[in-house]
Amino acid sequence: MRNLMRLLIALFTLAAGSSFVYYLIFELNLFNDYMGYLAKHALLAFLTLVFGLAGYLVAPNVMERFMVMTAWMEHKLQHTPIQELIGGAIGLIVGLIIANLLDASVSGLPWFGTYLSVAVSLVLGYVGMRLGVKKREEIQGYINVIPKFGSAKERFQVQQREVAKSNPCYKVLDTSVIIDGRVADICKSGFLDGTLVIPAFVLEELQHIADSSDLLKRNRGRRGLDVLNKIRKELDVTVEIDQRDYDDLSEVDSKLVRLCQELGGQIITNDYNLNKVAELQGVKVLNINELANALKPVVLPGEEMTVQVIKDGKESGQGVAYLDDGTMIVVEGGRRFMGQTISVLVTSVLQTAAGRMIFAKPKVGDGQKSTSAQTTALSEVNAIV
């Protein structure tokens, strides 16, 4: 195979050299004053052989360089995303089409017209290819729209995604909300719009937690990584990994606040302390716990509900029950109904950022509101906060 390639290169240089020498001798008539007809043909034959021999000698070096260049191009193509290849190809085609339209005007110029035409084709082809690579996402968006013209809903969704890309609303996730996992369900329901930003330093912290020797921490870290994979692979949400880090800050919370200030974004968290610090520095916070509390059913004093008393309360005679969403119900005089399902009447509701607590009394009996019980419960909630 190598010998065949070497022979082909030699034949190519021989033919090219022969054409070049023929043009010099018989077209330009450079040697009319020095040579006759036979001498010119002899010179043509000699120089043709010289070109052929030169091509045969340099062929191995040419083939080696060609193989290196081919391997380099193959490596680059393998590591180039298909979107860039498609965008570059479309841009190149458009550039060459424009160059072809200009060719009629350019090639008619004096002796440099042909060369100018080639230069215009090269320049416009290169510019088109570069623009195609840079605009690959927009090109892909238009391509994706083509088969969906029949569905107004899908067209609207595509338009919404394009608007979100052009004017992103950044939502920065912190470590606690990723480990919590509820943010994935919120994204799936469509309540979160914009672009989710996952800082590299948050990923690093998650990795440290997942590699911890403590079993509980390790499981929490792995759960957080699984949640991120689910958001990226299964949900129709734009996700970006931000590589910025701040060497002058050691705390992850401080880095999150700085990043949100630079992006003009919002923090999604369920960390109470981070919530307060971010608000003090003018960063908007979306607290998952506050959202969960807001979605709990509203309970008003005087309403009746059925609960199961499962344990003693802090005060004498108290019983404690829970709703399905985890809300604690303090039943005054409910201790005697331990393990039973009873009907109670709501007497008051205590709502804080840390959660909600309901005070009730048995529907049947002389249960009365215990002010001391509410005071004790309030102090416990404040201690948690």
From TrEMBL:
Species name: Heliorestis acidaminivorans
Positions of transmembrane segments: 7-26, 38-59, 80-102, 108-127
Q: Which Gene3D superfamilies match?
A: 5'-nuclease
Q: What is this protein called?
A: PIN/TRAM domain-containing protein
GO molecular-function annotation terms?
Answer: hydrolase activity; nuclease activity
What cofactors does this protein use?
Mg(2+)
> What are the alphabetically sorted keywords of the record?
Hydrolase, Magnesium, Membrane, Nuclease, Transmembrane, Transmembrane helix
The keyword Methyltransferase is annotated on this UniProt entry: no
Q: Point out the coiled-coil segments of this chain.
A: none
The record, for PROSITE patterns, names: TRAM
